[in-house]
Design brief:
heterodimer; A: 371 residues; mainly alpha; ABC transporter involved in vitamin B12 uptake, BtuC; two-stranded antiparallel ribbon; globular; B: 254 residues; alpha/beta; Rossmann fold; 6-stranded mixed beta sheet; 4-stranded antiparallel beta sheet; 32% helix
């Protein structure tokens, strides 16, 4: 904020100076004598816009560098089996992060995804005890996820909450409690329909099936966010919520549907995880909210909303998977992994701050140039 | 200068608005006509922005009515007002920093298909939107550094021009501008004034809120002065009655 006003002040004084120039008899020659200046400004501009471009591709670059370094450190890293491992381990984070990224685009946050996922698997597991039908069990998991998302969205929007943090924190607790309460023995239940196990743990042409699920979900989210009017509205709501109302966008419905889609993605994640383990458990998805939010932010989306795309969520999820996997291969203990992920989050958020600062620079330079 | 006795495109009749204990609008009536710039003047807190927001559908009047082309109009929401052909350039511009100029233009009114789906579920025709936005930008002679860059990267004057240009794309009756030059330097201000002249020339009614008397004298065909929520005067501004206008605004009878 303080930055902003400072830039504004500078901009208008530059504008005033320019106005004064234009009223002098020979503006052209005046301009050339002036020492404030175009050459200087455009030089600065190219530097700054280079910085911006670098930041935009930053996460991908970091990922490439990371992979290069790790593959030098351990020969096992770039083997087909290990790559398959990473893909399978990352699948659930990636799928749920794709939904989370839509929520974050609208300046929101969904803290309930982890417990929602646990609840969804438990509901699916309980249904499996009654009927061995893959479609029904999958439907149950998808519905559970979407319903929790709908509750999040409805309470946030129609309960006129200032921020979704509290309601999704509440459903985080409620879903975990509910999952523990309804699962027999409050613990893991073995068994899932064969088709779900195939989705979660089998491979096709040596590639884990869960990877194809990620691709499908990513394609769906990409189409919605980039090509559908709904997607444009989520960017608008995240960019400037008041203006979105003034422009006649149905902001409440956009928000509600965003949380429902996040919940739907959780349902898909539940299917993949239940399939991979051939089980359901009220303990699943612990800290998944952290992983998915981290993935979206590390990938390069803005925590302030309005900025991000499918690629960010995917790159971020893979980065988390790669860091975990590498630290495992290098025999670094689990606690240090948590510290490492946390540090990466701090770096990612600072990169976002830096990007906003650079953009403010572009604005001032631009203002000076157009005078 | 303007055609005599053109039927008013907008008539506000006996408008009343209260916010709790604050009586923001007291029995305000005025007309706006096509091809005319109407300056809405008044000191801070006189009720100008409230009046504009009521016409734009952001607030509802407590009493009184708003007529469009002589018929009572129900402007319950910003969307309803926009559908009725009323465009507003808000003081904060209501631009989406994360979107490009073209995306800003069409935000909330995207060109999309197929028509039988609810609006949100349709697919965008981005090419048509880019094309039409580029045409408008050209027609209005607005110079932008890059057409496909987000608005966040543009200067105050460029942003202002985009907001005004957006209003010009969709307006069919009335454009309201709330202090459109407040944050601008001299040259950028003049660009915006030129845009307003163009809007008028294209046959729109224009309502302009400003504190700049120079602009009022240069641009406005008529001026309505509000003080403490009441309409205290209406006249044709020119160099000679400038002082009179100022005293009306501040309330010191000259």
């Amino acid at each position: 904020m303080a930055n902003d006003t400072r830039h504004k002040g500078r901009r208008s004084s530059a504008a005033l100076a320019a106005g004064a120039r234009s009223q002098s008899p020979s503006p052209q020659s005046d301009l050339q004598q002036d020492d404030n200046p175009r050459g200087h400004a455009s030089h600065g501009l190219s530097l700054v816009s280079w910085g911006l471009r670098l930041l935009n591709f930053g996460p991908l670059l970091v990922l490439v560098v990371l992979v290069a370094i790790i593959s030098l450190l351990t020969p096992y890293f770039l083997t087909p089996i290990n790559i398959g491992n990473i893909l399978a381990q990352t699948a659930v984070i990636a799928i749920v992060a794709l939904g989370q990224h839509l929520v974050i685009l609208t300046r929101g946050i969904d803290l309930s995804v982890g417990s929602n996922l646990a609840l969804a698997t438990v509901v699916g597991g309980l249904l499996f005890r009654v009927v061995d039908s893959a479609p029904l069990v999958m439907l149950a998991m998808l519905l559970t996820g979407t319903l929790v998302g709908a509750v999040n969205g409805a309470v946030y929007v129609f309960g006129r909450l200032p921020h979704p943090f509290i309601i999704t924190l509440a459903t985080l607790s409620i879903c975990r409690g509910l999952a523990l309460e309804i699962s027999p023995g409050h613990t893991t239940m073995r068994g899932m329909p064969d088709a779900i196990v195939t989705i979660g743990s089998a491979t096709t042409f040596g590639i884990p099936n869960s990877f194809f699920v990620v691709v499908l979900v990513a394609a769906g989210v990409l189409v919605m966010a980039k090509y559908m009017v709904w997607g444009r509205w989520t960017y608008a709501v995240g960019g400037h919520p008041e203006a979105a109302v003034e422009m006649g966008i149905p902001v409440k419905w956009v928000l509600l549907s965003t949380y429902m889609i996040s919940g739907f993605c959780v349902g898909i994640g539940a299917i993949v995880l239940a399939g991979r383990t051939a089980a359901s458990s009220p303990l699943y998805g612990n800290l998944l909210e952290l992983d998915t939010i981290a993935a979206v932010i590390i990938g390069g989306a803005s925590f302030l909303g309005g900025r991000g795309h499918v690629g960010h969520a995917l790159v971020g999820a893979v980065m988390i998977g790669v860091i975990r996997n590498a630290l495992n291969l290098l025999n670094v203990d689990v606690f240090f992994q948590m510290i490492a992920i946390g540090l990466v989050i701090v770096l990612a958020v600072e990169a976002d701050v830096l990007r906003n600062w650079l953009e403010a620079r572009v604005r001032t330079i631009q203002a000076a140039r157009t005078q | 200068m303007n055609a005599p006795v053109a039927a008013p495109v907008l008539s506000v009749r006996n408008a009343e608005k209260r916010f709790g204990a604050v009586h923001a609008l007291k029995d305000v009536s005025f007309d706006a006509r096509r091809g005319e710039v109407l300056a809405l003047l008044g000191d801070n807190g006189a009720g100008k922005s409230t009046l504009v927001k009521c016409i734009a559908g952001v607030h509802a009047l407590d009493a009184g009515e708003i007529l469009l082309d002589g018929e009572a109009a129900a402007l319950h929401s910003p969307a309803a007002a926009r559908n009725a052909g009323i465009e507003t350039v808000y003081q904060d511009l209501a631009l989406f920093d994360n979107l490009t100029p073209a995306q800003n233009f069409y935000c909330g009114r995207e060109i999309s298909f197929p028509q039988w789906l609810p609006r949100g579920l349709r697919f965008m025709n981005s090419r048509a939107m880019d094309q039409e936005a580029a045409d408008v930008i050209d027609r209005l002679k607005v110079r932008l550094p890059k057409f496909d860059a987000p608005v966040a990267l543009m200067s105050g004057g460029q942003r202002q021009a985009i907001a005004v240009a957006r209003a010009t794309v969709f307006t069919r009756k009335l454009v309201m501008l709330d202090e459109p030059t407040a944050a601008l330097g001299l040259r950028e201000s003049h660009k915006v004034l030129d845009l307003i002249k163009q809007l008028r020339a294209e046959g729109n009614a224009v309502i302009l809120i400003t504190h700049n008397m120079e602009h009022v004298v240069e641009l406005a065909d008529r001026a309505v002065v509000l003080r403490q929520g009441r309409k205290v005067g209406e006249l044709k501004p020119d160099r000679s009655n400038r002082q009179e206008l100022v005293s009306m605004i501040v309330g010191a009878e000259a």
